[in-house]
Every structure is written in structure tokens, then in C-alpha cells.
Amino acid sequence: MTLTADFDIYVDLPSTMKGSHLSRNLEVVSEIVEESVREPVSSLEDLCSDITRRLLKRHEYASYSEVRTRADYFLERKTPLGNRTTERYCLMAAAQGRRDSDVSMTKSVGVEVVGMTACPCAMETIKHNRAQEGKVSSTDIPVITHNQRNRTSLLVEVPEGHEVEANDLIDLVEESMSAPTYEILKRGDEAQVVERAHLAPRFVEDVVREILSRLLKKYSDFPDRAQVRVRSDSEESIHKHNAVAERITTFGELRK
Amino acid sequence: MTLTADFDIYVDLPSTMKGSHLSRNLEVVSEIVEESVREPVSSLEDLCSDITRRLLKRHEYASYSEVRTRADYFLERKTPLGNRTTERYCLMAAAQGRRDSDVSMTKSVGVEVVGMTACPCAMETIKHNRAQEGKVSSTDIPVITHNQRNRTSLLVEVPEGHEVEANDLIDLVEESMSAPTYEILKRGDEAQVVERAHLAPRFVEDVVREILSRLLKKYSDFPDRAQVRVRSDSEESIHKHNAVAERITTFGELRK
Amino acid sequence: MTLTADFDIYVDLPSTMKGSHLSRNLEVVSEIVEESVREPVSSLEDLCSDITRRLLKRHEYASYSEVRTRADYFLERKTPLGNRTTERYCLMAAAQGRRDSDVSMTKSVGVEVVGMTACPCAMETIKHNRAQEGKVSSTDIPVITHNQRNRTSLLVEVPEGHEVEANDLIDLVEESMSAPTYEILKRGDEAQVVERAHLAPRFVEDVVREILSRLLKKYSDFPDRAQVRVRSDSEESIHKHNAVAERITTFGELRK
Amino acid sequence: MTLTADFDIYVDLPSTMKGSHLSRNLEVVSEIVEESVREPVSSLEDLCSDITRRLLKRHEYASYSEVRTRADYFLERKTPLGNRTTERYCLMAAAQGRRDSDVSMTKSVGVEVVGMTACPCAMETIKHNRAQEGKVSSTDIPVITHNQRNRTSLLVEVPEGHEVEANDLIDLVEESMSAPTYEILKRGDEAQVVERAHLAPRFVEDVVREILSRLLKKYSDFPDRAQVRVRSDSEESIHKHNAVAERITTFGELRK
């Protein structure tokens, strides 16, 4: 798959130097792009860590380097009724390199996923109101609530000797929302997606907690110091502002 | 009320001139801002038409000038249960001046409003599905559907001798959506907004039609040539793309 | 080359219908994306016109359809001293289809290019000031002025039976600025780019005129009714606002 | 002065609670907006710290709260030749409150300023090239280089018992660039701004260093733990990418 990626590239500068040789940053990226024509890169996070390493070699005065990237990404999905559709996601990756006697490297991989959240609070109030008004519907039919587009991002540190597949992260985030969304939905599918969202109403706080709990299960052998960042943004349909939940933590903290 | 406004300012350039005296544009705006400290401007569209007129005076070589502006705007509103809340809107205005023997001027005023739409199609399908499954709920309880944040803009030409209040346009747009939205909603209010939206499910096409129909009624004495532009964008909760409806027309066309 | 493209897709709606079958739009795009895996598309504008045609077939109630697209695009370039660099551009294309007894189609192709403009006015004033102060430098050395990032877009209608290469449009726009810009510039190259820009100082008005004049020469056999839109934006380094020139015209108008 | 401000508002959530009472956040902001009608707020950072304190009172389950704000801001300036012009800036402020036995509060104030940088490196190369070609100009005339729009932000912690005026920060940042920019410049003024920028060529690294050095001098009595964040972005006129320098540090670090 060919991806169009944006890069942010940093090197530090010792107090003894006036400016950084910025053209070297672009040369490193250019080299790697050219090499990738001959041999595709294995992952975005390895690409970032490769650039970081070369930056520290090329900027011999620097002791720290950081690279971050984002790229649009597409996956073929099946709708609830089994129709094919192509969905857009965003891949993210980052690497930080620190030079002491040797170079120590941290790398991370992440995704941004757009899905749907349905509000549990409004649903609860409306269910309660209807009960009071004697308009009881059968208990297995979810009542109305507000629902909206949700944008959630997850960035996970990939410890030495471990691997994280971006596709797994996309699945994990999508399953943590009220429902995934699809570009093509005929009527039957549309109804299914709406029903599914109303059967799993979630606050942004719920989405973040759900993701962290699934992450801990799936990557149970990750060391305590491995870092995680999750952020979930609901573009509230009943407000003009967004509701946001965010947690920046470590696997160690999550295990407590 | 003090507004922070952005301006786009244009003058045409005859083929005999190399460049425009751009600093004159900024001088005109600056003059008007200074005068407005002493005497507040009556309306954004009059401000635009004043700037346009002065531009044509100052750029003696120009035969056309155009000014467009946007500003954040706030109104105090009451929620369904009567609680006070302050809501954010966007005001827009524009003026075009053409110099022949005399200067002819067109001015417009507009608003951008964020509200809520609930989908009539999913609601219909789900109602039908439930009937088929024998899960009939009482007919006066709306069934679930997807709903979302909707952003609708309306720009209306203000013909000579007529007036249009931006607040009226805001009301008109807000009433044409499934429901207005509010920054502060306690539980009871939240339930009311959700119920209201589900009792008036609307496509973006419906929002545009509703606005045009109300506009024609309210400004029934506007001449046929007066122009209107409406655009409604729903940030679909079940898709990653938006649904948009737009119509650019005249009062004459609408009367047909 | 694989491009990631964004699409805006429109069909009109007769007054007798409540809503449009939006999922059909996405199905058409999806079909074409799938077919393009087997057989790459020849051009973005043909892709747009193909989508437009199928939309009119699929939405049998519609009499008008429009498709617009944008995609990031990359070209290998040589710097003034002959070093290789990869530069980012934006491709644009559009198609409009109208159904009467038959379907009539208009298609356009365009580009957005980032380059550099140096201001002729400040240069003139400073040259004049220095002459007055007796600080005359040799006449072949350009004096200082302000220069800045410029973003220029060009969209040209492609009449039936004609062809326009996006790469030609990119060259044409780049040559109409004060200088092209490059992602990798070692010192010698950097000096060359700066010198070049100061030898061709240009207002945004100049950039637009230069493009239109070159366009008329290159596509001299285009019919009078073929449309052109050029817009040049300089992110002025001495102001906080931008300077913009825009012209929307036809080959016929340009020939006058 | 009336400012239109955007707020980001956060409270933490104990693991024992499902969701946060989000409407309380908006109620607090609303209260304060209403009170400010009667009694204007003294500073944006005090406003943030007031909101933060009330949030902790209202969300009795929370132990941490954070508020960030941004607002457009305008100052009257004099151009080099003494003409009046109104310039746009951005004010920023933030507060973090932590509840233990008592509430501890940190507050910060900041600005974002748009100005101009001229590149010292291209200037040096071109000067050297001209000397080699025998085209020596008198040494007091600066040679050409590329220059561009620069956007620099500075955020400073305001320690208990100290005060920081946003206007002082704006002056400090503006003086650290190659030249300030102005909305209205007649020819004589335009030439002055260009000359000034070429007499003080600066990399983004220089801008950041200059700001930190002036800051340390001006607020010499600030405690070591007070934090500072500076970021300078030049929208390079010879590249399509930006050059960025950033430093996040403390007064203690700066004193080393």
C-alpha cells in the first residue's frame, strides 16, 4: 500500500551552535523515500526510528532527535449485513532517540478512528420519563438518545522485542465505541448500525476506559514502563462544543 | 456588542495598471474601525457597503469592489425547560459595488448556525422492522435513529429600502433544523432536546427547503431579483463523510 | 502513482422528491476505486467525468451532477545547481454533467503550487532611497526587498477533443512566480533561489497575468468559451494579512 | 476591551465514577461570563485560575482541573515612520489546580505574535559569492536574503505574588524577531521594515534564544521552578515546509 505521510522532524541544538543544518533533515527523509521505492518499509514506526537514528548520525552535535508522522490509511470492511465498504483511518507513529555513550530509542505506533457514540445519560433520563408517563415500551427495545460522530486516537509505545499491528489497534478502538461507522450503508445496514449504537451507549470516558482495558488484555506481556495515550472526542449533537476524555499513562499504572 | 470580525477585501485592476495600492484597503478599514469607536455601526452589511463605497473612491482606477466579513456572535437563549444559556453563532455580511456613471451597490447579510438533525430514513426503516418483528411500541413514541451536529448557513441579499435582522435569520434557521442545541443542558433539558429532534426528523434537503419556504413567507415583499444562498451540512454520525444540501437561487425562482 | 484523493459529490433533486439516495454516490465512487485497481485511471478529470456520468445514470431523477476532487501529488525536480529533490503539489479536477435529451459534460483540470514572490514595490523604493543617499551599488546587483511564500492555483476547462497535462500546468505556474521553491537546498542552491527571486520580483497581480498570458500561448487552439480560474495568494512577510489576486475568465475574454 | 475567547476545560475522574457532570463546566464558565458583565476580569490568567478553583469546588470527586484559553487581541502600534496602525495578536492563558488537603494552583500567561525573520545563512553565502565575483558593495548595505512570515508563541508561568503583563510579552517577542510587521505600510514605511529585517537576520533558533535571554533579564526575580515554553515557526519562503524551534524549560535551567 502506498501512503502519503506528513513528517515532523526535530533535533536538539547545543548552546555552542548558532543554528541547525536543517537541509540534513530533508536529505535523510529523501534517502529513505528513495530506498523505499526499492524495498518497502515494514512499518511506520520502524521508518520513524530509522530516520531518528540517521538524524543523530548526520547531526553529530545533537544528543536528541524526534520524528512524528501521520498518514491516511484505508481498510476494506464488512457492514453488519455483509456488504463491502472501504473505510478511512489515520495511522500515526513516532520515535525518540537519545545519544549517551550509545543511542537509546523509543518508538510508538497509533491510530485515529472515526466512529459513533450514543449517550447513556439522555437514554436513562428518557427511559425514566417514559416509565413515569406510563408509556412503557418492552424492555428489549432501546429508547432514543443523542448520538454523534466520535474521533478517538490511541498511541502505544512498542517496547524492544515486541510488535504492535496498526490494524489490531484500529479494531480495538472501533470495538470500544458505541458502533463503527461505514461509508456505504443501504437501508437495512443503516438500521443495524443505529440499533448497535443504541445497545452500547457510551460516554467518551467509557470509550477511553474500554480501550485501556482491552489494551492491557491484548498486550499483557508489555513492560510496566511502556506508555499509552488515548483521547476520545465526541462532536456532541446536542451541544455546540465537544466532549473530550484523555488519559496518558503507562502499562504499570494500568495494572494497579 | 463588540465583535471581532475578519474581512476579505477586493478591488479590480484595469489592464493598464501593474498593481493595486493595497495599503489603501487597510486604511479604509482602519478609518472605519476608528469612527466606530465614536459611533457604533448599525449593521455588518452597512459596514461592508460603506467600505466598498470608500474603496471605489480611493481606488479611482477600479470599477468593481467587494467586501466580505464574518464575526462570532452570541445570543442569550432559553432551554426547553426555561434555563438561560449563551449560544454562539456566526454573522456574515457582504457588499459588491460597481461603478458606471454612478455606483450601484448590492449588500447581503447572513448567519451560520449549529444545530441538530435526526435522520427520517433510518427512523422509518427501524419502525418498519419493529412492526415486522411484532415489537410494536405505542405510535406516539418516536423510535431511535441517528442524529448529528448540523451546520447551516444562510445569506440573503438585502434590497434597497428593505431591512433584514440577523437575529431573525438565526431564529429562522434554528427552527428549520430538527432541534436547536444548547451549551448548558441539565438532564431534564437534555431529554427535551432529544425528544424534540426525534419528533422533527430532517434530511439536509429538508432543512434547506424549510428555510427557503419560511424566508419567502417572512420577506414576501422582496423583489424577484433578490438572491439567496442556503447550505446545510450534517456531520453524519453513521458515516465518516458529511451530507450536504445547497441551493443558490432568487426570490423570483422561489415564487415559481 | 497512487494518489489519495478527496471527493465532493453533488446531484440535484427535483422538487417532487423528499431526499436523495446518498448511498448511491458512495457506491459509484467505490465501484470506480475497485475498477482502478485492475486498470489505472488515465487522469483525474476523466475520473470525475466518469463518476458524473454514472451518477446521472444511477440517480434517474437528477438532471445535474457535479464532482470535484483534490489530491496531493509529487514530482522529482532539479535544484538550480542540479541536485535532486521531491516536491509536493496539489492536483485538482472537476466535472459537471447536465442531462437534457442527452448528457452534456464539462471537465476541468488544475493544480495548486507553492512558490516564492519577491515584492517589486519595496525593491523600487529601496533602490531609489539608496540612490538619494549616494549609496549606489552596481546596477546588476538586485537590492533587498521582502519576499514570501506564495500559493497559486489554476483550474482550466478541458474542451472536448483537447488534452491538458497537469505537469504542464505545474511548470507554467511555477515559471510565473518569482522563483520555484525546493525541499532540499544546500547553501549554493539556497543563494541561487534567492538571487533568482530577486531578479524576477512579482506582485500577485503579476503572477496571475503571467499565468494567463502563458496559458493563452500554450493552448492557443482552445475555443473561446473554455473557462479559466487563477488565484494567487502571497503570505506577505511584512504584513499579518495576505495579498490575493484572482481572475475567473474565458479564453475568449483573454483574446480580446 | 471585549475579547472573544475559546476555552478548553478539564477535570479528572476517579475510577469509581462512570462519567463526569459535564454541564457543571459550562455552568461555571457561564457564571463567570455573567459576573464579568458587572465587573470586568483583571486578566485572562486570573480568569482561568478562578474557573479552575470553582471546577474543583463543583466537581467534589475531582482532584485535578485544568483550563486553557486563547483570545484574539489588538494593540495600536506606530510604524517606523510614526503612522498609526492596529495590530492583531493572540493572548493565551492557562491554570492547573490540584486538590490535596488544600488546592494548589499554577497559572500561566502567554502570547502569539506574527512577525518577520530574514535568513542569516543565505545572506552570508550571497555576501561571500559577491565578494568572490568582485561585485563588492559598500559594507553597510545589507545584501539580499530570503525572509518570511514568522509565528512565535511564548507561555510563562506566573508565580504566586508576581505579575506578568501580556503587553510586555508581546513587546519582548516582537523585538526578538528580525522585524515586527504592520497592517498598514505606505512606501517609506515598507522600505524601513525591510531594511530593519535585513539588519537583524535571525534563524528560528535565534528568535527562541533571544526571547529566553530577554525574559530572564526582565523577570530576574522569578523562582527557579517557574516554567517557560517558547516556539518559533518560520513559514520559509524558499521551502514548502516550515522551520521550527521550540524550548520548554524553567527559569532555573536558564540561569545555568
Structure characterization notes:
The structure is a homotetramer of 256-residue chains. Chain A is an alpha+beta fold. Chain A contains seven helices and eight strands; from the N terminus they run E-H-H-E-E-E-H-E-H-E-H-H-E-E-H. In chain A, a hairpin with a 3-residue loop joins strand 3 (84-99) and strand 4. Chain A is elongated. The two termini of chain A are 40 Å apart. The model of chain A has no long low-confidence stretch (mean pLDDT 93).
Approximate shape of chain A: elongated
Q: SS-based structural class of chain A?
A: alpha+beta
- Radius of gyration over C-alpha positions of chain A, nearest whole angstrom: 22 Å
**Greatest interface:** C-D, 45 and 45 residues
Question: For this entry, what is the oligomeric state of its chains?
Answer: homotetramer
Note the beta-strand portion of chain A.
25-35%
What separation lies between the terminal Cα atoms of chain A?
Answer: 40 Å
| Sheet with most strands of chain A | 8 strands, antiparallel
The counted number of beta strands of chain A is: 8
Average predicted confidence as pLDDT of chain A: 93
Low-confidence stretches of chain A: none
H and E string of chain A: EHHEEEHEHEHHEEH
